[in-house]
Amino acid sequence: MDINKYGAKGKLGAAHLFSLAELDEGQIYEILHLARKLKQKQQVKEKLGVFDGKNVAIMLKSSSSRIRISFELAVNRLGGKTLYLSPNDTDFLNGLTYLDAANMLYRYGVNGIVVKNLTAEEVAQFKTFGKLPVIALKDGRGSPCQILASLFTVWETARRLSGVKLLVAGDCRRVNAEELNAYAKCGVEVTLCCPEECSPDEQLFEKLSQFGDVKIERDLKAAIKNAEIVTSVRGEEAPAVLAPYKITAEMLNASPAAKYLHVLPVKHGEEVEDEVLYGDKSVAFERAGNLIFAEQSLMMLLFR
User: Which domains does the chain have, with CATH numbers?
Assistant: First the structure.
């Protein structure tokens, strides 16, 4: 399906979002089309009051400034208000569960909640007993809003999703299946570039290949010439064998169409040269800005 020919209906057909794996291609396009409209309106300083009188609760088990700040700004720009519940609040320390808190907030008149790192048991409880619509986030690249912001940025950059050539370089044992499956659902062609010892294992590769073929290349210089979007991945301790897989300006300039995308934070000088990250061929910070529009779109489709 071509995202540019997709006719948005303004409906998501879901009560919650616990994982992007739960959404099909059309539902992802609904979110992206609304995100684009919201970005266009805010770029011309159009005032949006669609959340006037609405309150969104943010409940995080662990501190995350990016989540808190981006959602606070996203809600504020729509005319609503946020309520931040700290995991250090005595209610939680004394045994109040997140489900208990959500159902209490529902009675208070809150319109939706944003939570992070729910267990499988908590997700099941929310689906069965929760009264409020939920956006469930995770740490890292597998978080739904982070993936949506990346897809939105790829669409903006390449002006399409289907057929876009995405190259992931580095420690491919650490790629996120949910992220790459979302790309594949939308027709993006995924190639992994890594040394043999940093290849995904059989089980992970099977997960990555659910929605399309995933190629593996070894020569970064050769692979990058065919790429339109280049991203990189590193673990906490990157083995020396990954040194040739650093994204350099010389490599990226070999492909006129290639742009560098990253979720951040990045390992400076090890994963990518600063000349690339802060240069004209980087869309990493544009992607960071697009996170707000992805969050706004998702909240409007779920919390209204």
Answer: 8-143+289-303 (3.40.50.1370), 144-287 (3.40.50.1370)
